[in-house]
Recover the amino acids of this structure.
C-alpha cells in the first residue's frame, strides 16, 4: 500500500539527488539533471514527491571533493543533519498521520544518503591525492539517513526506506560488486519497481 | 574527469501543476528544486527550510549554475525563498506563470 486512504495518492520522499543531479559531487553523476527513469517509476506508482534537502550542499557547497563516511561523520555535520532531519520529519508527519505510505529514497553508496552501504576509507585525509575510481564500501547507512531515520521515528512517522542500487547512479568504475545490490541495470530497475509497486 | 551535471536548475513549487512545462525543462537537462508545501507544518519549519534552500541555491550560483524560478502570483513559499535570496543580493532568473 502506498496510497493515501483519503485521496488515493501516494507519498514519497526522494532525496534531492533524484530530481537534481547538480547537487552531486563533480565526476560521479550519470544524469544531467533529473534521474528521469526513476521519476517515471514513481509516477507509475502514483507517488507524490517531496524533495529532501541536500545536507552536503548546504554544509560544504558544490565544489566539494569526493568524501567518505569517516569525513562526514563529524560532530558539526551530524548536528547539521539532525537539525535538518527534525524539520523534515515535521514536514512529513501530517502525511504520515493521514495514512500515507512514506518511502525514503536513498542514494547508492553515498556517505550521507546511503541506505544499505556507504563509502568508507580511513586513509582519506590530509594532502589531496588521486583516490582512483574504485569505491571501498561497508554495510551501514550514511550520516544524513541515520539522522533522518532517528527524527522520523521520534515523531512517530511510519516509513520504508529504499536504497537505489549504485549501478543506476554511479560511473561503472565506482560500482562495487557486492551481494547487497544488483550489479546489472535491468535487475536494479526490477528491484525498484517491485519495492515501489510500480 | 567527465562531469555530466548540466549546471542548470529550475525552482518550482508544484511539479504536477506545471507538469508539461517542467517536462520540457527536464528534457533539456535541467535539475529541479521543488519547494515543499509548508502549510500543514508546524511554525518555524518553513522559515528554517527555506533558509536552507537559500543556502543551497547560493552555493549553486557561486558555482556558476543557472537558476530559474517558476512563479505564479499565489506562490507564497516561492516568494518567501526569493525574498531571502534578494536580502543576500543574489540574482536569479524568474519566469512568471499564469
Amino acid at each position: 500500500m502506498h496510497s493515501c486512504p483519503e485521496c488515493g495518492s501516494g507519498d514519497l520522499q526522494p532525496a534531492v539527488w533524484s530530481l537534481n543531479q547538480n547537487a552531486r559531487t563533480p565526476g560521479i553523476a550519470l544524469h544531467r539533471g533529473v534521474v528521469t527513469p526513476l521519476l517515471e517509476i514513481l509516477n507509475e506508482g502514483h507517488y507524490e514527491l517531496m524533495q529532501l534537502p541536500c545536507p552536503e550542499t548546504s554544509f560544504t557547497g558544490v565544489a566539494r571533493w569526493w568524501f567518505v563516511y569517516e569525513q562526514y561523520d563529524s560532530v558539526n555535520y551530524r548536528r547539521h543533519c539532525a537539525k535538518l532531519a527534525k524539520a523534515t520529519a515535521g514536514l512529513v508527519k501530517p502525511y504520515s498521520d493521514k495514512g500515507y505510505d512514506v518511502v525514503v529514497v536513498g542514494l547508492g553508496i553515498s556517505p550521507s544518503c546511503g541506505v544499505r552501504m556507504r563509502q568508507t576509507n580511513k586513509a582519506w585525509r590530509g594532502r589531496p591525492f588521486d583516490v582512483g575510481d574504485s569505491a571501498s564500501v561497508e554495510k551501514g547507512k550514511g550520516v544524513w539517513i541515520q539522522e533522518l531515520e532517528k527524527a522520523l521515528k521520534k515523531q512517530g512517522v511510519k516509513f520504508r526506506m529504499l536504497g537505489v542500487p549504485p549501478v543506476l547512479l554511479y560511473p561503472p568504475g565506482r560500482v562495487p560488486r557486492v551481494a547487497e545490490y544488483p550489479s546489472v541495470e535491468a535487475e536494479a530497475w526490477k528491484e525498484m519497481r517491485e519495492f515501489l509497486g510500480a | 574527469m567527465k562531469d555530466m551535471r548540466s549546471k542548470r536548475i529550475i525552482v518550482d513549487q508544484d511539479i504536477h501543476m506545471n507538469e508539461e512545462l517542467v517536462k520540457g525543462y527536464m528534457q533539456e537537462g535541467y535539475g529541479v528544486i521543488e519547494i515543499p508545501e509548508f502549510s500543514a507544518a508546524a511554525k518555524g519549519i518553513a522559515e528554517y527550510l527555506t533558509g536552507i534552500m537559500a543556502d543551497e541555491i547560493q552555493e549553486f550560483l557561486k558555482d556558476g549554475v543557472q537558476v530559474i524560478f517558476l512563479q505564479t502570483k499565489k506562490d507564497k513559499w516561492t516568494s518567501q525563498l526569493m525574498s531571502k535570496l534578494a536580502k543576500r543580493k543574489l540574482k536569479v532568473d524568474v519566469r512568471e506563470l499564469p
About this structure: DSSP finds three helices and four strands in chain B.
